[in-house]
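Input sequence (172 aa), recorded before submission:
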Amino acid sequence: MKRLAILLCFTLLLALPTMVFASEETTVIIHYKPAADNTLDWNLWIWPDGGEGSVYHFDGEDDFGKVATVKLSGNHTKVGFIVRTDAWEKDVDADRFVEVSGGSAEIWLLSGDATIYTSNPDGGETAEATTPEAMPKTGMGGTSQSSYVWSLTALLLIALASFFFIRKQRVS
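Predicted structure, token format:
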């Protein structure tokens, strides 16, 4: 019975990080205005900083242009993106990154303009913007949630191993 209780505690300690972080996600909303004479079928290549990328399609339209709502597993602080075609024709040459706060970010992009607007540039007010030159092209600046999960799991395993080692020393 005692071994069963220890095994159950050990299993719960290993599963705890996954249970705590499994429901977290990052949402990025991208508004994109293609040039008036541009008829290419644009999509997005998106990746969490330091992670693998995937293609995402624009899933709607608004008064500004095309809209994509992208949900990524985990809590990411920086997400990279490229506006491109399936043949990898890029709208702008730079890989761009958006800073994420509170699990979400919303940006506006104009065709051929490398600026990342954090408010609608057609809205009549001066739009806040960041440029890709101010952000690194590659790197591990953002920390994905999986690194926290592994760190916490390693810490729990060390604590558990220490507990059993100390307990064994007392018995001997």
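Checked by second reader. The two ends are 22 Å apart (CA to CA).
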